[in-house]
Amino acid sequence: MEQQIERSKVLVRWIVAVSLFAAVAYLKRQGQVGIPWSTILALSAVVAGLNVLYGRILRTGAPPWLKFVTTATDLALLSALVFFTGGAGSVFYFAYFIVLVSNSIRYGMAMALYVATIYNVTYVVVLLALPVGGDLTVEAVKILTFWGVALYAGYLAMRFQRQTRILESYEETIARLRAELAGPRPAK
Amino acid sequence: MSDPGERRTPTLTARGVSWGLALGLVLLALLVGIAWRTTSAAWFLLFPLLLVGVLFALGVGVLWGLRHF
């Protein structure tokens, strides 16, 4: 199950990475972001390299730590992109939500809390490296909004998982009853 | 007589819940204070601890109020 989920994440990561690369390249050509080409290529190479590595690991199975590592590297790379494209004012800030929703829906509340914590730490690092200056209330609201979305997505995923388990138990009961009906009946 | 080696199941008392709620409100006030007044982003690193603390304390309080325990 986890192997299947992580494989699907590898595919989604390729799509998101290509989309982000295209967006950054376009904005760079338009002169709207100051990120150097060397940095764009370096970030793209790191994403591609890690994605190939994850794909190779997933050929033999999914170690339990893999989902945490892939999520943390995704958020760290995204934070690097946010940092190089303007920090708090970066247009790529919203890409954090892709990582959040993608992982929370797949893995549930625990992963939602993990994503929110890693985001919180990496985004603060971005804010410390590229200070906004003055009032930080807007940044606090951004972080707390992310937490709100994480908790809500985690809650919805939890409900969905519970309903899936109930459905599975119904299916098992139906299968057992069918088997009992189809089996030999005791003679009267 | 109960077995001395037997572990007692922890029970939630009204006093414990009240202290928990008070602690939750303090953490909430701290959270709002940091969000509102801080001038250093480093303080935001406390958000995960504060948020989880607030949600846990208030969650226990609400469930106690609804006679869940």
Question: Can you put this structure into words, describing what you see?
Answer:
The complex is a heterodimer of chains A (188) and B (69). Chain A is mostly helical and 188 residues long. Chain A has one domain. Chain A has 6 helices and no strands. Chain A has helices at 2-29, 37-60, 66-84, 96-107, 109-129, 137-182. The longest helix of chain A has 46 residues, at 137-182. The mean pLDDT of chain A is 92. With 69 residues, chain B is mainly α. Chain B has a domain at 20-65. Chain B is 62% helix and 0% strand. The mean pLDDT of chain B is 86. Chains A and B meet through helix 5 and helix 6 of A and helix 1 and helix 2 of B.
Please provide a brief summary of the model.
The complex is a heterodimer of chains A (188) and B (69). Chain A is mostly helical and 188 residues long. Chain A contains 6 helices and no strands.
Q: Count every helix of chain A, treating DSSP H or I runs of 4 or more residues as helices.
A: 6
Fraction of residues in β-strands of chain B: under 5%
Q: How many β-strands of chain A, per DSSP? A: 0
Please give the domain count of chain A: 1
Whole-number mean pLDDT of chain A:
92
Class of secondary structure makeup of chain A: mainly alpha
| Overall body shape of chain B | elongated
Taking the sheet with the most strands of chain A, its summary is: none
Following the backbone from N to C, one meets helices and strands of chain B in this order, namely HH
Uncertain stretches of chain B: none
Identify the notable features of this structure and list them briefly.
heterodimer, A: 188 residues, mainly alpha, elongated, B: 69 residues
